[in-house]
Amino acid sequence: FDLKLGSGQFVPGFEEQIVGMSAGDEKDIDITFPKNYHKELAGKPVVFHVKLNKVTETIVPEQDDEFAKDVSEFDTLDELKADIRAKALENAKKQADSAFEQAAVDKAAENTTVDMPKALVENELDIQMERFGYQLQMSGYSMEQYAKMMGGDVSTMRNAFRPAAEKQAKISVTLEKIAEVEGLTASEEDIEAELKSLAEQYELDVDKVREMVPMDELTGSIKTRKAIKVIVDSAIPVTPKTEEKAEE
Fold this sequence. Notes:
- By secondary structure, the protein is mainly alpha-helical.
- Among the domains are: about 1-60, Chitinase A, domain 3, CATH 3.10.50; about 110-170, no CATH class; about 180-235, no CATH class.
- Helices cover about 60% and strands about 5% of the residues.
- The chain has nine helices and two strands, in the order αββαααααααα.
- It has a two-stranded antiparallel ribbon.
- The longest helix is centred in the middle third of the chain and has 34 residues, at about 75-110.
- It is globular.
- About 5% of the residues are buried.
């Protein structure tokens, strides 16, 4: 696992305890997950056994026009900075749009009464456990090892993930109902556009993608996105009111 000091990419308090270690050193790092972390881990203590394999240093080159030419298609540093700024603004807008979309979908599901099949919840739970298990593997831990460090077992962890799985399952059912009520469908044009997009994303031939992707999953994904659009288009952003201080 590569960690850049100062990046803040890991749990707060972890990087600070790495400082001073040399290549080959091993150390137990005690931290407590922050309260705003994943619900199943928030506020819980954990011990990571770390071995530092190597230490590298990033050499930052002088930023001038020559630097811009070397790292981009631009001739001047000002042009490069302008491009970076434009892309940063575009990315910020995408993040804001994504956050608004998620909030709208969450609220729609929250306000919807549906019957959730138990099998759907268990399937979503399997998906979330598998995803978290993969993240643990990337950090060098198994699900069993992590569960033991947290003072429980895999069954305990599964129960901790259940509320999130139930929420996601309800969202899925809500979107299906909206697609049904609104009569949303996946047209041939929609399907071809989706196949083309996937082919470009994975650098494959469209016909190859058509063979690989189950058609029911493809059409389901298209209808889900259309249902989300229905929710977002009808959602009204609300600006939180700031409390005014009472005059004495």
